[in-house]
Amino acid sequence: MAKTKMTKRKIQALNTRQKIFDTALQLFNKKGYDRVTVDDVCKKAGISKGTFYNYFKSKDQIIIEEFLKIDHYYQEMLPEINSKESYLERMKTFARLSLKYISEQGAPTVRIAYYSQLSPSIKTSPIVSPKRPLYQMAERLAREAQENGELRGDIPSEEIANTVIRAMRGIIYEWCLHNGKFDLEEAGEELVQILVHGLLP
Amino acid sequence: MAKTKMTKRKIQALNTRQKIFDTALQLFNKKGYDRVTVDDVCKKAGISKGTFYNYFKSKDQIIIEEFLKIDHYYQEMLPEINSKESYLERMKTFARLSLKYISEQGAPTVRIAYYSQLSPSIKTSPIVSPKRPLYQMAERLAREAQENGELRGDIPSEEIANTVIRAMRGIIYEWCLHNGKFDLEEAGEELVQILVHGLLP
DNA sequence: GATAATATTATACTATAGTCACTGACTAGA
DNA sequence: TCTAGTCAGTGACTATAGTATAATATTATC
Question: Alpha helices, DSSP H only, in A46-83?
Answer without folding.
Answer: 49-55, 61-67, 70-82
